[in-house]
TrEMBL record:
Highest taxon of the lineage: Bacteria
Chain ranges on the Extracellular side, renumbered to this chain: 1-2
Topology Cytoplasmic: residue spans: 22-567
Summary of the function given for this chain in its UniProt record: Negative regulator of FtsZ ring formation; modulates the frequency and position of FtsZ ring formation. Inhibits FtsZ ring formation at polar sites. Interacts either with FtsZ or with one of its binding partners to promote depolymerization.
Location in the cell: Cell membrane
A Pfam family of this chain: EzrA
Family: Belongs to the EzrA family.
Entry keyword set: Cell cycle, Cell division, Cell membrane, Coiled coil, Membrane, Septation, Transmembrane, Transmembrane helix
Chief location category: membrane
Name of this protein: Septation ring formation regulator EzrA
Listed InterPro entries: EzrA
Originating organism: Geobacillus proteiniphilus
Length: 567
C-alpha cells in the first residue's frame, strides 16, 4: 500500500515539474519573439533618411549603400530566419523534446544578440558621419576667422617677427590650401576625410598662433635684452680688471663669446620656427648670465672680506700668540709644582707647532694679497679655512689652560680632604679619652698606627715637588678607607667596653648565691683589665644570662636611656 502511494506521489511530482518547465520555456519563446519585433522596429530607415540630406556622392554614397544593404539583409533574411527557428522550438516543445528545444533557444538568443550589435553599429556609424559633417561645418568657420586674424597680424606687425615672417607666410599659405581641400572633400561627400582635414588645420593654426605670440618676445630677448646684459658684463669685467681685480680664472671673454654664439644659434632656430628649442636656449642663457653676474659680485664681496678680515685675523693670531706665551709661562710654573703627564706636554707642543704653521700661512696669504696675482675669491676661501683652524686651536688652547687651572684646584681639594680626615682621627681619639678605658687592645692600636701612617703618606705626597696628583689621589683613597675603618672600630670598642662594665656591675647581685656566676664575672673582669673588651662582654653576658635570661637586654636598654639623656 505504502509503495503505491510513493509511486503516485512521484508521478504527480513529475507531472507538476513537467508543466512548470514547459511554461518557463514558452515564456522564453515569447521573450525572444518580443526582442525580434523590437529589432525590426529600430529607427534605422529614419537614420538612413538623414544621410540622404548630405551630398550623396563618393564616400557617403558608398557608406549609405553598405548600411542600406545591411539593414535590408537583417529585415528580409536574418529576422525571418529567427521567426522560423522560434516555430521549430515550439514544435520541439509540443513533442516534449526539451533538451533540443533548450539548445535551439540558446542559439536564437545568441543570433539576436549579434543582430542587436549590428543594428547598433549601423546607427552609431550613421550618427558619426552626420555629426562629423555638422561639427566640421561649425569649426571650419572658426578656423577661417583664426586664419584671417593670423594673416592680418602678420601683415600689420611683420617687423616684430623678423626673419621668421617668411616661413610664417609659407605656413599660413599652406594652411589656406587646406580650406580648399575641405570644400572639395565635402562636395564629393567624403565627410570623414574632410573631418581629418579640419583636425589637422586646427592643430596647425593653434601652433602658428602660439608661435606668433612667442616670437616677438623671444626676438626681443635675443636681439636686445640678452646682448645688452652681455655688454654690461663685459664692461663690468673690464672695469674690475682696471681696479686691480684678478679675474683670469673666470675666462670671461671666452665665456661671453660662447653666449653670443648661443644667441646666434637661437635666432637661427626662430628663423626656422623651432620655437620650443629657442625657448629652451633662452632660458639656459638667462641662467648662465645670472651665474656670471654672481661670479663678478662674488669677487667684489670677496675683496671686501679680504680687506676687512685680514687685519682682524692678524690681530686674532697676535692675541693667540700672546696667550700662548702666557700659557707657556704658566705651564713652566705649574711644571715646577705639579707633575704633568707626557700626553699633556705633547698637547701643548702640538698647539705651539700649529700656531707657527697658522702664522706662516697667514704671512703667505698676506704676501699673495700684496702681489695682487690671486683672485680675491680664492684668497677668501683660504682665509675662511684659516679662521676655522684658528677657532679649533683656540678651543684646544682653552682646554689646556683649564687643565692647568684644574691641577691647582685639585691640590686645594686634596688638602681640604686631608684636614677633614685629621679631624675625624682626632675625634676618634677624643672619644677614647672620654671613655677612660684602662688601655687599648693590640689590634686597635695597630689600626690606629696604620691610620696615622696613611695620613702622613698623603701629607708627604702633597709636599713633593713636582706634585704628582694621580699619586696624591691614590694616597687619599687609602687614607680615607683607613680613617673611616678606625672611627667605626673606635665607636664599636667603646660600646663593647661600656656594656661589659655595666653587665659585670649588674651581675654582682648574683655573685654570693651562684658560684658559677662569680667565676664567670671574675673571668670577664680579668679580660676587661687586659683590654679584651669584646671577649669580656661575651663572658659577662653568658654568666648573667644563665641565672636571669633577658638580663642583657635590660642592661642595653638602661645604657641607651643614659646615652640619650647625656645627648
Amino acid at each position: 500500500m505504502g509503495m503505491a502511494w510513493i509511486v503516485l506521489l512521484l508521478g504527480a511530482g513529475a507531472i507538476i515539474y513537467n508543466h512548470v518547465y514547459r511554461k518557463r520555456m514558452y515564456r522564453e519563446i515569447d521573450r525572444l519573439e518580443e526582442w525580434k519585433i523590437n529589432l525590426m522596429n529600430r529607427p534605422v530607415p529614419d537614420e538612413l533618411a538623414k544621410v540622404k540630406q548630405l551630398n550623396m556622392t563618393g564616400e557617403t554614397e558608398q557608406l549609405f549603400e553598405r548600411w542600406r544593404q545591411q539593414w535590408d539583409d537583417i529585415v528580409a533574411v536574418k529576422l525571418p530566419n529567427v521567426e522560423e527557428q522560434l516555430f521549430d522550438a515550439e514544435r520541439l516543445l509540443d513533442k516534449y523534446r526539451y533538451r533540443q528545444a533548450r539548445r535551439l533557444l540558446g542559439q536564437i538568443a545568441d543570433g539576436l544578440r549579434r543582430l542587436e550589435e549590428e543594428v547598433h553599429e549601423i546607427i552609431h556609424e550613421v550618427n558619426e558621419l552626420i555629426g562629423s559633417e555638422e561639427q566640421s561645418r561649425a569649426e571650419i568657420e572658426e578656423l577661417r576667422a583664426a586664419h584671417r586674424e593670423a594673416k592680418k597680424a602678420l601683415l600689420a606687425y611683420r617687423y616684430t617677427f623678423g626673419s621668421a615672417a617668411d616661413l610664417l607666410d609659407v605656413r599660413l599659405t599652406e594652411a589656406e590650401k587646406q580650406f580648399q581641400r575641405f570644400a572639395e572633400l565635402t562636395e564629393a561627400g567624403n565627410y570623414l576625410a574632410a573631418r581629418d582635414v579640419v583636425l589637422t588645420l586646427k592643430e596647425e593654426l593653434g601652433r602658428l598662433t602660439a608661435m606668433m605670440e612667442e616670437i616677438p618676445k623671444l626676438l626681443g630677448e635675443c636681439q636686445t635684452s640678452l646682448p645688452a646684459q652681455l655688454a654690461e658684463l663685459a664692461d663690468g669685467y673690464r672695469e674690475m680688471e682696471e681696479r686691480g681685480y684678478i679675474l683670469d680664472h673666470l675666462h670671461m671673454e671666452r665665456t661671453l663669446q660662447e653666449k653670443r654664439e648661443k644667441i646666434e644659434q637661437c635666432l637661427a632656430m626662430i628663423h626656422e620656427l623651432r620655437i620650443e628649442e629657442a625657448k629652451q636656449i633662452v632660458a639656459e642663457l638667462k641662467e648662465e648670465i645670472d651665474a656670471l653676474y654672481d661670479l663678478l659680485e662674488n669677487e667684489v664681496l670677496a675683496h671686501q672680506y679680504v680687506q676687512t678680515e685680514m687685519p682682524r685675523i692678524g690681530s686674532m693670531l697676535q692675541e693667540l700668540a700672546a696667550e700662548a706665551k702666557e700659557t707657556e709661562a704658566e705651564a713652566l710654573f705649574v711644571q715646577q709644582s705639579y707633575h704633568l703627564a707626557p700626553s699633556d706636554l705633547e698637547k701643548y707642543r702640538s698647539i705651539e707647532k700649529q700656531l707657527h704653521q697658522l702664522q706662516k700661512r697667514f704671512f703667505l696669504i698676506q704676501g699673495r694679497v700684496a702681489e695682487a696675482k690671486t683672485a680675491y675669491s680664492l684668497l677668501k676661501e683660504e682665509l675662511e679655512q684659516l679662521v676655522s683652524q684658528i677657532d679649533l686651536m683656540k678651543e684646544e688652547h682653552e682646554q689646556f689652560r683649564t687643565m692647568l687651572q684644574t691641577l691647582r684646584k685639585d691640590e686645594l681639594i686634596a688638602r681640604e680632604k686631608l684636614d677633614g680626615m685629621r679631624k675625624t682621627l682626632a675625634e676618634a681619639l677624643r672619644l677614647v679619652q672620654k671613655s677612660r678605658l684602662p688601655g687599648l687592645p693590640e689590634p686597635y692600636a695597630l689600626e690606629l698606627a696604620e691610620a696615622r701612617r696613611s695620613l702622613q703618606a698623603v701629607a708627604a705626597r702633597l709636599e713633593e715637588k713636582p706634585l704628582d696628583m694621580p699619586a696624591v689621589d691614590q694616597a687619599l683613597e687609602e687614607a680615607k678607607a683607613a680613617v673611616e675603618r678606625l672611627y667605626e672600630r673606635t665607636v664599636e670598642m667603646i660600646e663593647q667596653a661600656t656594656l661589659a662594665e655595666r653587665t659585670i656591675q649588674y651581675g654582682n647581685r648574683y655573685r654570693r648565691r651562684y658560684p658559677a656566676v662569680r667565676k664567670g664575672l671574675e673571668e670577664a673582669e680579668f679580660l676587661f683589665r687586659h683590654y679584651d673588651y669584646e671577649e669580656a662582654l661575651r663572658q659577662a653576658v653568658a654568666a648573667v644570662e644563665e641565672v636571669e635570661p633577658g638580663a642583657f637586654d635590660r642592661v642595653q636598654k638602661l645604657w641607651q636611656e643614659d646615652n640619650s639623656r647625656e645627648q
